[in-house]
Design a protein that fits this description.
With 965 residues, this protein is of the alpha/beta class. The chain is 50% helix and 8% strand. It is an enzyme of class 4 (lyase).
Length: 965
């Protein structure tokens, strides 16, 4: 991770308003208690959601309570996850009680348990944790539907350093695209937490019931005891901070130094932070971890940067994927090129096919994969470096990518302590479907996978030690010390046997180790042979032979430099009779006839030494090379027709070495040719797929053109002549909409003036006007009444942004007549809608489109103005009237085909009285408008069957001093 530009702020910072989203506005004058629905961030400190809930309660002089909904085995949770969470909640309740906050444990899913609880306590607002997972988002949608209109619902991202909707507004392709976006925002969001204020009003409502935690935990273990708990990770906030900053074995205080160099070594598991379970359950804040890690950056810069990359960028990239990709756990969520490649190879022949049960029990022929699987089963966590190898082998051993992805997610969620997490889903999607990965050829991916498999037996033995240690610690306490010592002794003996063999096989029963027979072909053995052959071929290609004299009397002085790959190939056969050192010679009889067609010389490969072959022996020429190699393989002597006596052992060694070297060279070239062929086939497949996609798009375009031609043929059927446009009603609607926006501007200005002088809204408004028109900002300070035009312009810009874009419902309608009819029906449904009706039933009861429009524009207005307080009822009513007016204008403008175009005036454009109207013309009659300083409200080009007209856009102008222009 590249370092941030500025170090995090050491002083506490106020709550950033962009960290919260208003899912449901609620009553403008709340008076009931505030309830914090805790779900993903289970902690009492360094919790932005709890801080925001406390601020809401203090602002309304209302009490605050914390509620947790205990769902029945959420996403298939087992005893391992449930036990860890419940024990952490037990500690959390005591910490909240010390802060004066009641804790309610509700049984059931949130949409079923929360509405009745909120009704009993008379709550006015609900603050919820953010989660990108589908079930939680569906719960929040259901809550917004079921809760009364007076109850507000806020969502706070307290899990990420930068909120997911702030970091990016789209699905990111990979870490390289989201990293610069997050880095730019770190100085604004990576800040110190403020102190949680004590409750302004004590809780006087329903008392939280007593909880029998032991019985609750036992019940969870009985129902979901298939996967037992683990003992290496203690739950709770205190344990999480101890794991981070503990004096005895804290990650930052004791193990951070080697994180950068050892984190990808599966044997050195202590180099990892071990914080993922605490981060998953929210028992520690990622922002707190980042702030504490930054303090060590001067001492361990590389390790801290690598840790922050994983902690911030990679975690938030996973949340980004699950938030913007609804199919985050299926093949549909993969990129199109990945789906195409996976489906093209789904029917490929596989060497092994394993069932889900075999994989779960680690009953495969791959000892490394078995070790990784059993580490996860017994330890509750797999080393991060092995996860990609583990998942890719599942793809290799199953019938297709859908089955592989399903099994990988099933095993991960079942056994990982931090399973059922966006990072887990993205990890499986990355390994199997190529999410967040670059589009590479299959040959490169295969070589990368094989290199991961090339591990030594020590690696597997280390995994065995981890698993057996966990099993010993997990035994009942009733086991005697003698049994424990006997068990450790057997494990040690088994490990010694494993170290004596080349590879190790670990079976799926409590870490029992069995040596693999030497004749069994494993991935490790194949990999070693391929690496040796490739290394020999590469080194031989760079080898330069130095010719030596022919006669034995000067053999000792004709030593040649030996390629390293050749010096260790075989044990010594003969030694030099002169000095006993390894000697390599060549002569005319040892060379091929033509040096241009074959290798120039074949050295006598011997690590201990060679004796020069007899004068009667020779190497075969070009014509007899293949025959010689064949005879070397079949171990038969050449016939007398060859004219060469080959009974001498040195001549036999020459032919054998000749065969090995040429075979290595041919193997290297064949490997290279195979890779080139795979790349060419992949490129051809991509081109074929692109052509198919292009043909499909052309077909769709032709079909769309036919539909357009069919709709155009009737002529006046969709024109202004058949359905006369209500011009007068449209003018009235525009006038009402402008008046409503002007009233909202007055209300906002009044609220800003009522606020404190240094409030965020006042400062934000001043900054906006200063940016748009510095002269106007000066005038506002002299005459605050001139602010109205600027506020009205800002609001109109927000309301009419995206005016021409289709709504969600309109995109489903292709027929222009249907679109026009839908707009007319929408206009008739809401034109008489009043504020009192909205308060009773909400806007969604009358119009889905208007409800979405109000929610979207409310967020835009809050962001533009920088509003940081509750909305009074009068201000909410003014906002509704302005939003309704803009929506009515939009419906009327789209009730004809084509829709009425919007007229806008850019800043600095020359004033044109045909399309523009100066809002200050009455006060400056002696001056002539010159250029547009600001557009206050947009206009429209209106047409009907009898003619046309223009609704001028209103502008604020800069003026000339005379009328001569």
């Amino acid at each position: 991770m590249a370092p941030a530009v500025v170090a995090p702020a050491a002083t506490p910072a106020p709550f950033h308003p962009d960290r919260v989203r208003v899912l449901k506005p609620g009553s403008p004058s709340p008076s009931g208690p505030v309830v914090y629905w805790m779900f993903r961030d289970q902690r009492s400190t360094n919790n932005w959601a709890l801080i925001h809930a406390a601020a809401l309660a203090a602002r309304s002089d209302a009490p605050l309570a914390v509620a947790f909904c205990l769902s029945h085995r959420f996403l298939g949770a087992h005893a391992r996850q449930l036990g860890f969470m419940l024990r952490g909640l037990r500690h959390l309740r005591g910490r909240l009680a010390a802060l004066g906050l009641p804790f309610f444990l509700l049984r059931g899913d949130a949409p079923d348990a929360l509405p009745s609880f909120l009704s009993r306590v008379g709550a006015s607002a609900l603050v919820a944790d953010f989660s990108p997972l589908r079930p939680v988002r569906a719960w929040k949608d259901a809550l917004c539907e079921r809760l009364p209109a007076a109850v507000a619902v806020h969502e706070v991202d307290a899990h990420n350093v930068v909120p997911v909707w702030v970091a990016s507004d789209k699905l990111e392709y990979g870490a390289k695209t989201i990293r610069p976006k997050i880095h730019r925002l770190l100085t604004e969001y990576l800040v110190e937490f403020p102190q949680l204020p004590p409750p302004a009003v004590p809780w006087t409502g329903e008392a939280p019931p007593e909880i029998d935690w032991d019985e609750l935990i036992d019940e969870a273990l009985r129902e979901a005891g298939e996967v037992p708990e683990i003992g290496w990770c203690e739950p709770g906030e205190e344990a999480a901070m101890e794991a981070l900053m503990g004096r005895k074995d804290g990650f930052l205080t004791k193990r951070l130094k080697h994180y950068d160099s050892d984190r990808n070594d599966p044997v050195k598991s202590r180099a990892l932070s071990g914080l993922s379970p605490y981060l998953h359950f929210g028992q520690i804040s990622a922002q707190r971890c980042a702030l504490e890690a930054w303090k060590f950056r001067k001492s361990y810069r590389q390790s801290v940067d690598a840790f922050l990359e994983e902690l911030i960028v990679r975690r938030e990239l996973a949340d980004n994927f699950c938030y913007y990709q609804p199919h985050y756990d299926s093949l549909q969520g993969a990129w199109e090129w990945a789906r195409k490649t996976l489906m093209d190879h789904a029917a490929d022949k596989r060497e092994h096919i394993y069932t889900k049960e075999q994989l779960e029990k680690a009953e495969t022929a791959d000892p490394l994969w078995n070790a990784s699987q059993l580490e996860m089963v017994y330890h509750g966590k797999m080393h991060g470096f092995m996860r990609m190898y583990w998942a890719k082998k599942i793809l290799e051993w199953t019938n297709g990518p859908e089955e592989a992805l399903s099994i990988a997610i099933y095993l991960n969620d079942k056994y990982e302590l931090d399973g059922r997490d966006p990072s887990g889903y993205v990890g499986c999607m990355w390994s199997i479907c190529g999410v967040h990965d670059q589009h590479r050829s299959p040959s490169k991916n295969n070589s990368s996978l094989e290199s991961t498999a090339a591990v030594t037996s020590e690696t597997v033995v280390s995994f065995c030690n981890i698993l057996t240690t966990v099993n010993i610690n997990a035994d009942n306490s009733g086991n005697s010390e003698d049994l424990q010592r006997e068990k450790k002794k057997k494990i040690h003996e088994s490990n010694v046997k494993c170290q004596d063999s080349d590879v190790v096989h670990m079976h799926g029963q409590h870490g029992q180790l069995l040596p693999i027979p030497q004749e069994q072909n494993t991935i490790v053995e194949h990999q070693k042979e391929e690496q040796q052959e490739e290394a020999a071929a590469v080194r031989f290609s760079a080898y330069v032979h130095k010719p030596t004299p022919l006669h034995p009397s000067i053999v000792a002085s004709s030593t040649v430099t030996t390629p390293p790959a050749l010096t260790t190939r075989r044990p010594s056969r003969t030694r030099s009779q002169d000095d006993g050192e390894a000697v390599y010679v060549s002569c005319d009889k040892c060379r091929p006839t033509s040096r241009d067609k074959l290798i120039s010389v074949v050295p006598l490969d011997n690590a201990a030494g060679h004796k020069h072959p007899p004068a009667g022996s020779s190497s075969p020429g070009p014509g007899g090379l293949l025959r010689s190699l064949f005879l070397s393989v079949t171990r038969r002597s050449p016939t007398a027709a060859a004219g060469v006596a080959s009974t001498d052992s040195a001549a036999s060694a020459v032919r054998e070495d000749q065969w090995r070297l040429v075979a290595a060279e041919l193997s290297r070239k064949l490997l290279h040719a195979t890779r080139k062929r795979d790349e060419a086939l992949l490129e051809a497949s991509r081109l074929e797929y692109s052509l198919t996609e292009l043909e499909r798009k052309i077909d769709r375009l032709e079909s769309h053109c036919r539909d357009l031609r069919a709709s155009i043929q009737p002529g006046p059927a969709f024109g202004p002549s058949t359905a006369p446009f209500q011009t007068e009603a449209f003018h009235v609607a525009i006038a009402d909409a402008r008046a409503a926006v002007r009233q909202l501007a007055r209300s906002l200005i009044a609220q800003v003036r009522l606020g404190p002088p240094g409030s965020r809204s006042s400062d934000r408004l001043t900054a906006l006007i200063q940016h748009d028109d510095p002269w106007a900002a000066v005038q506002w300070r002299r005459n605050p009444g001139g602010l109205l035009f600027h506020m009205e312009a800002l609001l109109n810009q927000a309301f009419y942004a995206g005016f021409e874009e289709d709504d969600e419902e309109e995109t489903r309608l292709i027929d222009p007549a249907a679109r026009c009819e839908a707009s007319r029906a929408g206009y008739e449904a809401i034109r008489g809608l009043g504020w009192d009706e909205v308060l009773c039933k909400g806007t969604r009861h009358y119009s889905e489109g208007l409800s979405r429009f109000c929610d979207r524009k409310m967020s835009e207005v809050v962001g533009v103005v920088g509003w940081d307080r509750a909305w009074p009822e009068g201000l909410l009513q003014a906002f509704f009237e302005a939003a309704k007016g803009a929506w009515v204008v939009r419906l009327m403008a789209r009730s004809v085909h084509p829709a009425l175009p919007v007229l806008r005036a850019d800043q600095g454009a020359r004033f044109d009285c045909r399309f523009m109207e100066d809002v200050a013309a009455d006060r400056v009659r002696r001056l002539t408008p010159a250029n547009v300083r600001m557009m206050v409200a947009p206009g429209f080009h209106v047409y009907n069957a009898g003619g046309g007209g223009v609704v001028k856009c209103t502008v604020l102008c800069a003026y000339n001093s005379s009328n001569s222009d």
